[in-house]
Amino acid sequence: MAAAAFAPTNNFLARLFRPFTTSTRMGLGSDSGSGAATSQTTIPDTAQKCTVAAGCFWGVEHLFHKQFGDKGLYDARVGYIGGDVANPGYRAVCTGRTGHAEALQMSFDPSRLSYATLLEFFYRMHDPTTKDRQGADTGTQYRSAIFYHSAEQEREARAVTEKAQAQWWKGKGSTTITTEILQAGTWWDAEAYHQLYLDKNPGGYECPAHFVRGFPALE
Predict the structure, then answer these.
(1) Half-sphere exposure of 124 (CA within 13 A, CB side)
(2) What is the pLDDT of residue 63?
(3) DSSP code per residue over 9-36
(4) Rounded CA gap, 178 and 73, in Å?
(5) Element (H, E) at 59
(6) Given this model, what pLDDT does residue 41 score?
(7) Which of 74, 170, 158, 64 is nearest to 116 (CA)?
(8) Strand, coil or helix: what is 140?
């Protein structure tokens, strides 16, 4: 029983001390088009991007792939956004000193999957009321955030957030959604071993705050 009680802490510590690469990674870039995708997936020009942060990116990526992998999601990459340091590495981001959030950037087919649907799922799969924290993972790198790629996405993000606050999160936790809504800046892909991490490592660390809540559909 005692060993089981310490398991979450051990898993969390294991995240910080895993081997890491120092190789340069080219990200998907900012809205200006800088950078280059590292994914081997062919993404059409009609695709749109959705970038969110919701704590440890392993579980975030896993849940979105599981939910939308065959429903219009072309690609989903974990990485870093919102900071002030070029080409950040995992250990640097984990210190909280680079300003980056662990995040997920998705490319999707807007004719099959709407941006609003992705954001509604975002508010179902994590706790947006705990500022700079998900479960036992604490720090600005674990903040809740939506990084929009257009004025229309900003409008949708604010509208969905308002509805989620009123219909889903009112009276729960600290009652107030703390999710930041910011313009997307430069994106940096995380190291290769982070991509599809829980598919490659079944039983690996999953934040306990990451699960799909059974909320009714937003009105």
Answers:
(1) 16
(2) 98
(3) HHHHHHHHHS----S-------TT--S-
(4) 27
(5) helix 57-68
(6) 72
(7) 158
(8) helix
Nearest one of 113, 42, 54, 99 to 78, comparing CA atoms: 54
Which of 156, 29, 53 minimizes the C-alpha distance to 104? 53
What are the backbone angles phi and psi of residue 177, rounded to the nearest 5°? Answer: -70, 130
| Average pLDDT of span 97-105 | 98
Q: What CA–CA distance (Å, rounded) separates 206 from 56?
A: 8
Q: What is the pLDDT of residues 44-97, one digit of tens each?
A: 999 999 999 999 999 999 999 999 999 999 999 999 999 999 999 999 999 999
What is the chain's percent helix, strand, coil content, to nearest 5?
A: 35, 20, 50
pTM above 0.70, yes or no: yes
**CA neighbours within 13 Å on the CB side: how many for 182?**
17
Cα separation, 77 vs 64, whole angstroms: 11
Residues annotated catalytic, as ranges:
56
Structure tokens at 92: 């640097």
Q: In angstroms, what CA-CA distances link 20 with 62, 110, 121, 135? A: 20, 35, 30, 24
